[in-house]
């Protein structure tokens, strides 16, 4: 029999894996640096957050839960900041965003 805690851990981990896969697909399929950065930063942050939440649920209350919470706060601060810095550096280098005129599916 699966307990509520085990079910919550499995659900959180499944969500983390799902969003990690979405980030990987976004990096492979999206057309330019700006959209790839957006996809990677948003979904990677959410996937890592759900995974760290699963760790916190497993360890209940204690030092590992505090460490997981601190890691989550660190990720929530650094991932969007790093994505913004990458996009800003690309804009400073003159990298133009992809537009519909550049090619792709015309429907």
Number of strands: 0
Return Rg in Å: 18 Å
Question: Mean pLDDT, nearest integer?
Answer: 91
Order of helices and strands: HHH
Please tally the helical runs, counting DSSP H or I stretches of 4 or more residues.
Answer: 3
| Percentage beta strand | under 5%
What's this entry about, in short?
This protein has 107 residues and is mainly α. It contains 3 helices and no strands.
Itemize the secondary structure elements and their pairings.
Blueprint: H1 4-29, H2 33-58, H3 63-92
Plain-language structure description:
This protein has 3 helices and no strands. It has about 110 residues and is an all-alpha fold. The chain has one domain (about 5-95). The longest helix is centred in the last third of the chain and has 30 residues, at about 65-90. It is elongated, with a radius of gyration of 18 Å. The mean pLDDT is about 90.
Which tags fit this structure?
0% strand, elongated, 107 residues, mainly alpha
């Amino acid at each position: 029999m699966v307990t509520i805690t085990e079910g919550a851990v499995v659900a959180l981990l499944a969500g983390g894996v799902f969003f990690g896969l979405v980030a990987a697909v976004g990096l492979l399929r999206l057309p330019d640096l700006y959209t790839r950065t957006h996809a990677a930063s948003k979904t990677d942050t959410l996937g890592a957050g759900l995974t760290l939440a699963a760790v916190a649920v497993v360890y209940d209350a204690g030092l590992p839960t505090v460490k997981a919470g601190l890691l989550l706060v660190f990720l929530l601060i650094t991932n969007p900041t790093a994505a913004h810095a990458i996009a800003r550096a690309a804009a400073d280098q003159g990298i133009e965003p992809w537009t519909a005129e550049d090619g792709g599916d015309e429907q």
